[in-house]
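Figure S4 source data
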Amino acid sequence: MKKIAIITGASSGLGEEFTKQISKAYDYDEIWIIARRLEKLDALAQKINTEKNAKLIKPIAMDISSKDSVYTFKQLLEDEHESLGMVGSGIEIGLLINNAGFGTYGTFEESSLSKEMSMIDLNCTTLTGFCHIALPYLTKDSVIINTASLAAFLPLGNFAVYAASKAYVLSFSIALAAELKDKGVKVCALCPGSVSTEFANVASNGARKEVLGGIAPDKVVAHCIKLAFAGKRVALYRPKWRISAFLSRFIGRYMGARFTYLHNKRPHAPEDELAESFNLQ
């Protein structure tokens, strides 16, 4: 059997870092990296494949911000499995990392409706679909990592849809971990706080180039990989993130949303000014 790893949102940030670390430390026959920006995927694939002196990384340019992408993904897996089946083999998914996603800063009222709906499709619908499509190819000790957020633990004003979408990812991942435990499949929700990626630039439409207090993605990724393969269900790298997640249990949901609406204003440019900044991984 051909053992593969699949990483979405791999053109930058956490997804790119996942690709680098998985290619160095884990033994897969092929790593599929999926994102919209083919030139970035190709560059990453060429770099790693040259270092490995092998065709390990397979770049797949695909916009996965719609339901149709789930069925495209299904067809990709079926075609690969059937082509290998002709020679008496097939594929198994040893690792699935659903990392693609984005957020938006600002109140729900002033946000673009189409962008908020695309966010739900990408952060929730596609992630759910990819997990379901992957199930027949998972085996004992396969791992699923779903990128949620520290925002998953409490409703947030000025971040309403994003926080809600990530609360879904966290809840879904833990439930899936419970259902797949007897099959030996591990599921982990990565819940990062501020990390130095393109997230803030996209969420603010270019008004904030860097997230405040962001840390390097390599540490977050290394910690998550270690915990996921050890069977942990939630990965929170920094102690302050773990404390925040714990304390959220004692804060009323409405109180948390109201406080962040009043006091956590995030800069953002109007949609029509910097539409080109909307660039999913």
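Figure S5 source data
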Amino acid sequence: MKRCYLFLVFLAIFGCAWAQSAEYVKEIVCRLSSDDMKGRGYSLGGDSLAARFLVSELMKHGVKPFGDSFMQYYPLDVYTIDGQCRLNLDGKELKPYDEFKLKPMRGVTSEWLEKSRWQKEVSGIWYVGVEKLGMSVPLTPFENMRKPYVVEVLDTVHSSAPKNIKSDITVTPRIGYISQNVCGYIEGETDTMVVFTAHYDHLGMMGDKVCFHGAHDNASGVATVLDIARSYASSKPRYTLVFCFFSGEEAGLLGSSYMAQHPLFDLKKVRLLVNLDLLCGGSEGFMVVNGKADNTSPFVGKMMSYNEKWHLLPEIKLRDNAANSDHWWFSNLCPAIFIYTLGGRYGDYHSPYDTCDLCGIEDSYENVLRVILAAIE
């Protein structure tokens, strides 16, 4: 009975027929993190596959494009790992990602090489034995086109420099690759805007067999933004609601940078921009990046007051602003915050094991989203 009462209060506050659906959100997370989306990267057109899916969902929910298209196209320089991505050391076939990875040259120093267990250079490429494989990052940008990466090998797999190295690793430069942001809106009672954003891209593929699924990072944020659009579709909101989905985040916040420089709407009319990323958890509450700023603290204060009143989340934490997600470029142009969840269930960060079955977004979703939306009361 108490749960029902709280929900009715929530409807009265926001004046919309809010129909939160953890089931819908989980369905979208699973769809976006499936093998069919090719890791939402730039190999095999994964970004375009995901973008077309987002457009179909926005149209289904009655969201309108700015102009003639939901797509905002822009160029970026990116590298992809294509083909079989095979490595054989002294007759032993290694497993991509689990036993070897590619590391961009920008993270390689002479000191780092000296600390490695073993090193061997073949045809301009260094193969290096390491105690622990580094975190997977996009292979962009490369400072040296001729030596764009090193190959890290887990030393428990091969403990000394191999005599024979056979590799079939194809790193393809895609200069001027055309990707796209996806953006639309629901007209409100006023032209004052609240903007919800999330990056839909992820790390793509490592060859033709290893897929970086990206359920937590960031199919979860994308699904939440879509659910907000879906929930407001049947009634006119108080503010005009804008929904932006960025590509290029994993390659250096490129899509959001382009949008900030070429906005599709008047940023001076933005009351608040809420960027959502890493939302599969939430059992311990969430973090608000840039929540201490003078122009965002009133909105964060509303969330905290709402949460304190209804005891929905254990904690709301605040961090200073940082260039760690797509809110960054907008934070000097309008009030902008970045929210990610704390605790809960989710897969490994930047790994092929960030999968839908490990995403627990349904566990805390309703409470997380109710607190977030309290900011736009």
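The two ends are 24 Å apart (CA to CA). Residues 215-232 form the longest helix (18 residues).
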